[in-house]
Amino acid sequence: MITFGRLRLRRAKDGAIEVWARGWRLETRALVLVPVALAAAFVIAPVPVVLRVLGVGVLAGCTWITLRLGRLGLRLSETGVEIVEVRHTVRVPWDDVAGFVGERTGHDGRAVLMTEGGRRVPAPGSFDAEEMDPYGEEGDESIVDELNRLVWAVRRGDPVPV
Question: Which residues, at least 6 apart from 63, have a Cβ–Cβ distance to it below 8 Å?
Fold first, then answer.
């Protein structure tokens, strides 16, 4: 993992670049072992079979959610941008990517991918208000500007230090 401004990057096995910000994803991947171990304990627990099956099923769902929490963020590949959320992944081809814009909420903000067709696809995490503002020392840019700079560098095929 390396940092690109305030963003974190990692090259995936398939060559795509995974992008996320601090606080977006579950950083410790070993935590997925917790629901797996609890499910194994349910298998040998001295409870009725129905409760065993129910417990293992619930913990299998927890395992899936924990795996997804470790993958939240964006994936920049040769084909386009993928926004990985807990429930699903939204794929937008490069031809349809217009760029990211900032969207404010009450206390913070988030990046939203705008498509050429006008569709808005929100990124899975949020940013602090200070990260959203480009104000500060001269030359500062908002985290959304950093994200756009990275996205366009990948789209152009510029080398990204990952």
Answer: 32, 35, 36, 39
Cα gap 144→139, rounded to integer Å = 14
Q: What percent of the chain has pLDDT over 90?
A: 47
CATH for 2-25+73-156, among 2.30.29, 3.40.960, 1.10.3470, 2.60.40? 2.30.29
Spatial contact of 83 and 113, defined as CB atoms under 8 Å apart: yes
- The residues near 20 (Cβ < 8 Å, ≥ 6 apart) are 7, 8, 72, 73, 74, 125
What is the domain partition of the chain in residue ranges? 2-25+73-156, 29-69
Residue 73 scores a pLDDT above 60: yes
Q: What angle do CA 95, 15, 150 make, to 5 degrees?
A: 55
DSSP conformational letter for 70: T
pLDDT tens digits along 111-150: 899 999 999 999 888 887 667 766 555 456 788 888 999 9
Fill in the amino acid letter for 151.
V
pLDDT tens-digit readout, 86-111: 999 999 999 999 999 888 877 788 88
